[in-house]
Design a protein that fits this description.
Layout: E1 12-18, E2 24-30, E3 37-43, E4 50-52, E5 58-59, H1 63-73, H2 81-98, E6 102-104, H3 105-119, H4 121-131, H5 137-150, H6 167-173
Parallel strand pairs: 4-6
Antiparallel strand pairs: 1-2, 2-3, 4-5
Helix pairs in contact: 1-2, 1-4, 2-3, 3-4, 4-5
């Protein structure tokens, strides 16, 4: 490692310590030429695949966009920030495990859909409506029915599909 204080091309490691979370190593170094000391941090460099957009453009994966997508779908839903963080991490891990250099945005959307299905069914349907470009109410109905078939009985949605009366009319019935 080059010394940041002088043009010397080498330094020696005096001390190495693993960070608290175990994800990096902090090294204390000393330059043999000028005697200055400095610290470096060594950590694994993860290469996430580039994203191939639907129009064919390629761009670097952006975790902030992923998190924003989750937060938008989960807006006003009873899901903790910790669970959202876990879902984002799960998608990033799926991307790493893919081993691909490039992935279509549709595939990343599939990873997100799988996580949303586990987190919150309403958020799943919200995301699906944009992701799959729902055209009408029938598309929503089909997705909800598919979700109900896929989930165990204890987790099914409690959304009425047949009652299309306005809220005021339903309130008068009760």
């Amino acid at each position: 490692m080059h010394c940041p204080f002088c043009p010397h091309e080498d330094s020696r490691v005096i001390d190495s310590r693993v960070a608290e979370d175990g994800s990096s190593i902090r090294r204390r170094r000393e330059c043999p030429a000028c005697g200055e000391r400095f610290s470096t941090v060594e950590q694994v460099e993860w290469r996430l695949p580039a994203v191939i957009k639907s129009d064919g453009q390629r761009e670097a994966f952006d975790e902030r966009k992923l998190r924003t997508g989750f937060e938008r779908a989960l807006q006003k839903r009873p899901v903790s920030a910790e669970r959202i963080d876990d879902a984002v991490l799960a998608v990033v891990n799926d991307l790493r495990k893919s081993g691909e250099r490039e992935l279509p945005s549709r595939r990343i959307g599939d990873f997100v859909m799988a996580q949303l299905k586990l987190l919150d069914q309403v958020a799943y349907v919200r995301f699906a409506s944009v992701y799959r470009s729902f055209e009408d109410v029938q598309d929503f109905r089909e997705e909800i029915e598919k979700l109900q078939r896929d989930l165990p009985a204890a987790q099914t949605l409690d959304l009425p599909l047949e009652d299309t009366a306005p809220k005021a009319a339903r309130a008068k019935k009760a």
